[in-house]
Amino acid sequence: MIKQNRQNRKEDQLAGALYAIPFSCCDVVTRYLRCNEKKSEIRTIFQGQIIRFSLPEGSKWSFGHLQIFEKEFLSDLKGRRAPCQIQTENEAFNERFEVFAADDHNAFYLLTPRMMEQIVRFADFADCQIALAFVGAMLYVAVERSHSMFNASIRRPLEEQRRQILDDADLIRRAEEMLIRETGILQQIG
Questions:
Q1: Is residue 33 part of a domain?
Q2: How far apart are CA 133 and CA 107, in angstroms?
């Protein structure tokens, strides 16, 4: 008999607004305990930062649920997807990402050629596995990283930690810039 228990842990939170777009960011670790008759093991499903961006009052970005995973990121999240798998007309995008949605219409409304280009640009900039979820007026950006953006260390030089804090802040700024402002989504809803 195999038994699985999930454990989620959120740490700290950074919240604010970038160019009038509210955001919230926190470190998240999701693990599960898999037990069978002979041994138990803890596996990490996700470790990194999750950033939530909110669109202005009264706007709606997504009429359902749209998820975009880099394929390696997806390997740990099997079974936690929206029901419809979507193939875009962009073969390079399809080779790198898998898209799941509540319905086809919503997916193609959001996944314009410009949006797909910006998702690829952001993934290249982040230089790690990413996932996106569009739900209502929210965009969730998951960035798989092994370090906590809030934990200081007496073992690491102060300048190195300062650079990491600035890099983490830049990641949030670039996510907003590339995935919201540069996609033209604000003009579409405004």
A1: no
A2: 11
Measured distance CA(30)–CA(164) in Å, rounded: 23
Residue 65's contacts (CB-CB under 8 Å, 6 or more residues apart) are 82, 101, 102, 133, 134, 135
Whether residue 9 is contained in a domain is answered as no
For range 79-86, the mean pLDDT: 78
What pLDDT, on a 0 to 100 scale, did the predictor assign at position 143? 93
Q: Which domain holds residue 120?
A: 49-189
Q: Compute the chain's Rg from CA coordinates.
A: 18
Domain-located, residue 90:
yes
Residue with tokens 């033209």: 184
Specify if 142 maps to a domain. yes
Contacts for 49 with CB less than 8 Å, ≥ 6 apart: 25, 26, 27, 28, 142, 143, 145, 149, 168, 171
Give how many domains the chain has, as a whole number.
Answer: 1
Sheet holding 21-35, edge to edge: 3-18, 21-35, 40-54, 138-144, 130-135, 65-70, 97-101, 84-86
**What are the pLDDT digits (tens) for 110-131?**
889 999 999 999 999 999 999 9
Helix, strand, or coil here: 59?
A: coil
pTM for the full model? 0.83
Helix/strand/coil for 71 = helix
Tokens coding 19? 């160019």
Contact, 129 vs 92, CB < 8 A?
no
